[in-house]
Each structure stands twice: as structure tokens, then as C-alpha cells.
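Hello,

Our lab assistant flagged a job as stuck in the queue for most of the afternoon. It eventually completed. Since we weren't sure the result was trustworthy after the delay, we are filing this so someone can double-check. Below is the sequence as submitted and the structure that was eventually returned. Let us know if re-running is recommended.
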Amino acid sequence: MPTPFIHLHVHTQYSMLDGAIRVSDLIETAKNFGMEAVAMTDHGAMYGALEFYEKAKKAGIRPLVGCEFYLAENGMEIHDRSAGHNFHLVALAMNATGYANLMKLASLAQTKGFYYRPRIDRQTLYAHQEGLIVLTACLKGEIPWRITHNDANGARARALELQKVFGDRLYFEIQENGIPEQTVANQGLMALAEELGIKLVATNDCHYLTKEESYAHEVLLCIQTGKTINDPNRFRFNTNELYFKSGDEMAAQFSYCPQALANTLEVAERCDLQLEFKDHHFPIFPLNEGETLDAVFSDACWKGLKMRLDHLHEMEQVTAETETTYKERLTYEIGVIQKMGFSGYFLIVADFINWAKQQKIPVGPGRGSGAGSLAAFCLSITDIDPIPYGLLFERFLNIERVSMPDFDVDFCKERRDEVLEYVRQRYGGDEHVSQIVAYGSMKARAVLRDVGRVLDIPLPVVDRIAKLVPEELKITLKKAIEKEPRLREAMKEDEVRELLTISQTLEGLARHKSTHAAGVVISPKPMVEYLPVCIGPNKEILTQYDMKYT
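-- returned structure --
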């Protein structure tokens, strides 16, 4: 029977170029270790939180959604060195209120507080403390840092301040990672915990899955910092112990403080986050006093049908019989759309498409199943008449299969930003309108070149190996080695074998964030009430969740 234990401090690949744990691997390993719950606490962001939540729930494991924040010592609004240290602090969402506060904090860290790193400060944390459990983090947490820097009074003062705000939701983290300063920190934390009545938790600040991956993680840090593995001044962790240990391993290391292990179960039990994804949150379409969405939508559809039919009469392409067909079909579609609550959705899509057309911005005629909607044709969302082509509305929207309508809209690439700006101005600005983040990952050839540079392998050697990877969509290095005998032959060379082995460990990890080419999200309330946001490469507001999870 494995020792009961829950990891509360874990960095996944979404601690970009710092964490090397894939979400699926994390959950599978936790399950194999018999752990009933596991945490995700990436640096200053919640990029993978929903992916983690859904996959953990599906696996029957309780997801502990959290974040390791950077706390600017002298204030997050200060964007120069006078901001002081960036101390670490781990926060876990206990419930929906905690999750909402976590999203707000992660958003503020990325937008208002960003200075080299996404930062908040103590005042901001305290303003959004409800529903959160906090842990004092690693050696870079303020309390352990002050202990190891001979500032026992400062550590005690900060502990008292946190205790006043969080009460029994504050826990001291102790770790066993082989770093000498950690022993000093542990001793100070244990003494302070006993004095102030604060509970201890054992954590391991996991950055990679297995001990064998510690060297590959060093390579990852070199990719992040632009250094090589042979650079004596490169950034490194002074331990190879920051992996996802089993309960038995943790129990052996913390035999002197078994309560710290037991308390991880207590923390996990206190976190019961339940998220609902069934409700739709449509933007607010502006109405005049006394108007309703259904009435405005219906009126716009019938006016649009008259315009379309007038044109067809001019072209002598409609008869009294077909006119009846149009009216019956539109009556049916309006009824379905209203019953499903999508009147506002159609009005909003029609609004920005017709604005673009008025500005002479080229707009595509319509793609996908949306072309089967006569209502969309009447509102000029599409320019495809579904009647003569026998296109089915039910392929687009079906009252028996409730799903969001989905219009594929193409705007001129050169003027697309004008449409985005119109949407921002119309629907509430940056607080309500956001583009969607996309994550670039380390693909087969790219990771070979990254790793080759870090290992100081001559460029011609790396280039030769990279070119042996077959030109194939979504090819992985494992598949490439299986398919290409010259790669298998090259692996007889020590440096090539090392190159391919480390590259396979790091392949597929998130490398950077970018802006999705097409996705835009509009929210009725401020965006941070639904999901966390960040700043994109061009200073635009982005969701922290990618297309699949927005």
C-alpha cells in the first residue's frame, strides 16, 4: 500500500522552458502512484489550467488548480529595479470563488504587473484572497528567503501578516531537495510553525517527471536562457531532486515530520473546485429601450428576406411557390434559433460582418455548415442562398442536438485589424474583447536544433540529423527513428544518441505563446470573470486558455 501523499507544488510544460511535465503524463503518473489528487502550480499563469482540470476529472483524480505567483516586494506597479525581490508564493483554489480570484490575480500579474516576469504584490493578493490556500513556496518564497538570509524577525513578521489574512489557509512548505540552504529553511519554518500554530506541508517543487530527466531539464533551462551546457555561468538548479516522487519516496525523506505528509491530504480535501461548462455567455448586443433580442432578430430576418427576394424578382429567379418556400423556411429557422437562445449570437455576427462590408473590407461568402442557414443569408452573414442548393439548416443547428452555432467567416487579411478594433469599441474594449492565445511547441526538427546548440554539437552534425527527419505532418522523433534507417545508424555515434535522446524528452513541450490567427472572444462581463488573460506579442490582450478551452 503506497504512502498517502499529494503533490501540491508542480510545474508543467506551461511554466514555459522551465517545467518539463506534460499534463497527461502528470495525471497518469499520479494515478499510477495511487494519488487521489494532484496540483498544477505554474509560474505566474494559468495557461494549462482547464486542460489539467478536464483531464484530471476524466481520470478520476481531483485537480488542485493553482499558480506560483511572483510577489514584487515593493509593489507590482513599479517597473524598475526598485520593485525589489520577486518572492514566490503558491496559491491553490479551494472552490469557485478561489478559482475566480486566481484568474484575476493571474490576469493582473500578466497585464499590470509584468516586468520581466508576471508579478503581483501582497496588497493585490490580499484583495483577492477569498477561497485561496497559500503555501510559502521554495527557497525563493519570502519567509524561507528571510530565514536563510539571517532575517528571522522579518520572516516572523511576514508570517504573522499572512496568517492574519489567510488564517488556517496558510501552510509552510518544507522540502528535501539536497540543497544545503533548504535544511536551514526547513529548521526555521518548523520552529516558526510551532510558535505560531501554522501547519507544515511537504512538497517537492516538481519540474520534471523522473530523476532521469533532470539532465534534459538542464538543457531546457539553457534553451530558455540562450546558454550552452558548458557555460559555467549558465542558470541551473543545484539539485536533481525536483522530480515527481512517489508517496513512499516522500515518506522516506520526511520521516522526521510525517505530519507534513498527512497535511497534504488535508489541503487536497479542502480544495473542491467544481466548474460548469454547459452555460453559454453571449456578449450583450446593444438594444433600444423596449426592444428584445428575439424581436430585433426576427425583424432583421424578415427585412433581409424582403431585400433578397426583391433582388431575386429582379433577376426573375423566383415564383410565388418558391417565395412561399422561403417564408416557411425562415419562419421555421427563426423559431429554432429563438428557442435555442441564439438570437443575440446571430445579431452580433451580422453586426460586425455588415460593418466590414460597409467599410469595403472584403468578406468571404460563407463556409461550412453555416451556409445552410437562410436566416444567415437574410442577415447577410453569408451570401449563399441555401434554397436552390438544397442546403440543410439542421446540419448547422439542430434543436435535438444542442451545440453552439459556428460561422466560418473570412476577412481580408490586410484589414482584419479594423474589424477587430470595431468589435473592441462596440462590445466593451479590452475588458470584454480578447484574441485567443496559441502555444508554439518544440517540433521534431526544431527541438533537435535547440538541443544541438545547447550541447555544443557542431552545426553540420545537427543539420545532417535534422534533415534525416522525414518531411511529414506531425512527425515525431520516435516515428522518424522507426522510419529512417539512417537515423538508427547515426545513433551509434555517442553525441547523436545523446542529441536524439534528450530531444525526445523535450519534444512537444510548449516553447512560447503567440496570437491565434482567427480566434476572438467577446464576453458580457469583464473577461477575467470567465478566464485569465495575458499580453500578446503585439501588446494585445490574449486569453490564457487556447482555442480548445475558450
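-- support follow-up --
The delay was a queue issue, not a problem with the job. The result is valid. Residues 206 and 242 are 5 Å apart (CA to CA). Residues 293-314 form the longest helix (22 residues).
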